[in-house]
Amino acid sequence: MSDGERVEYRKLILATGSLPVVPPIPGINQKNIFAVKKEVPYLQQMLDALKTASNLVIVGCGFIGVEFAEECKKRRPDINITIVEMMRHCLMLTYDEEFCIKAEEVLKNLGIEILGSEKVEGFLGEEKVERVKLSSGRELAADMVILGIGAAANVKLAQEAGLELGPTRGIQVNRYMQTSDEDIFACGDCAEKVSFFDGKPSPLKLASIATMEARIAGANVFGTRRVNMGVIGVFSTILGGIAFAAAGLTETTAKNMGYNVVVGEAESVNRHPGGMPGAENLKVKLVFERGTGVLLGGQVSGTESGGELINAISACIHQEMTADDMATFQTGTHPALTASPIAYQLVNAAENHGNKILSMVRIRQWEDHNHAPPFCRGCVTVAEKLG
After folding, report:
1. If residue 254 lies in a helix (H) or strand (E), which one and from where to where?
2. Whether 151 contacts 18, CB under 8 Å
3. Cβ pair 22, 28 in contact under 8 A
4. Is residue 298 within 8 Å of 313, Cβ to Cβ?
5. 3-state DSSP: the chain helix, strand, coil percent, rounded to 5?
6. Are strands 201-202 and 120-124 parallel, antiparallel or unpaired?
7. 155-220 CATH fold
8. Which residues of the chain have pLDDT under 70?
9. How far is the CA of 383 from the CAs of 125, 288, 321, in angstroms?
10. What are the structural domain ranges in the chain?
């Protein structure tokens, strides 16, 4: 303990969380440059600085960056806000490009400028930050800066205890959340993660993951009961009243990992008929492994109900459901609560996947046999099995 008191334990769970990443950029220690620390007095200083700032620059266009940008704009509609991002678009680590572009359009409509494919090289000023120097040579006026670059595991206590660290510098744990000391467990942002999809180290740090790991660690403290199958990664945010949510692998990430994928998409209003009060659009994109039809990931944009739909998609991923499973499972619908059962986005996106495979098979069979419909029995049999 900090006061020198010693506490004995039979079992110990470490949940020391994470710390914001603060890169060694020249001028980083100037006044009015804030990382997003989980400390109330520090965050109050940030809010106080926002009251008088004229030009706010946010470094990083992930979830921290875009959400802070929108909230700061709500508090200070007159403030100039610019987000600087190394990648081409905002949120590119989480969504496919079409969703990123839509999110950028929402932010721009709110009066927020986004500079993609840019890198901060330095912060300029006399004691207080005054300008931000970019790799392109451009300088931005800035009397306040927020760093939204990410977080790193807080492992100081674990290191002092001699515990092993993992590849991403989190506390190394097994599937039961045990550390290298069998009587010490770790969970949350401080613990090492592995991917649900390939078992490789994952840098994901999310509150939903932390609570899942806490339930596993708590259940296993005095006897193994639960196993961590790895992190799926479920994200959601709302910008300008439009929900953006994702679970699992994007189409881009899945292809980069070597998966042969096929995508199913569906878009419809969330009420039926469409003229119902409160009817708003909802788009669903699902990514399936082509050979097995197993769901790898999904993305949603549109009405706020997408924030809950993505949780259903995550459950489908966790249970390794196939497109056929999703196209034939039974849904509850109501005119004031959901899309029509014949236009239900989750089911239709799965069905759309099957139609794409069938179309591709038919085209391939036509090219191979050089004949037009109706196809030979062999072609139809193959198409039915693959579709």
Report:
1. helix 251-256
2. yes
3. yes
4. yes
5. 30, 25, 45
6. unpaired
7. FAD/NAD(P)-binding domain (3.50.50)
8. 1, 354-387
9. 66, 17, 21
10. 18-151, 155-220, 234-369
CATH number of 18-151: 3.50.50.60
Residues 360-369 have pLDDT tens digits of: 444 444 445 4
Q: 0.85 exceeded by the pTM?
A: yes
Question: Is 369 within 8 Å of 383 (Cβ atoms)?
Answer: no
**CATH of segment(s) 234-369:** 3.50.50.60
Residues 6+ apart with CB under 8 A from 374: none
Cα–Cα separations (whole angstroms), residue 167 to 74, 208, 368:
40, 22, 48
The distance of Cα 192 from the centroid of its chain, to the nearest Å, equals: 17
Cα–Cα dist 275/297, whole Å:
31
- Look at residue 369 in the predicted model and tell me its pLDDT: 46
Assess contact for 96 and 250: CB atoms under 8 A.
Answer: yes
What is the longest distance spanned by two Cα atoms in the chain? 84
Tokens in use for 297?
């990931």
Sheet harboring 131-134: ordered strands across?
120-124, 131-134, 139-141
For 293, residues 6+ apart whose C-beta sits below 8 A from its C-beta are: 322, 323, 324, 353
Pair 289, 259: CB distance under 8 Å:
yes
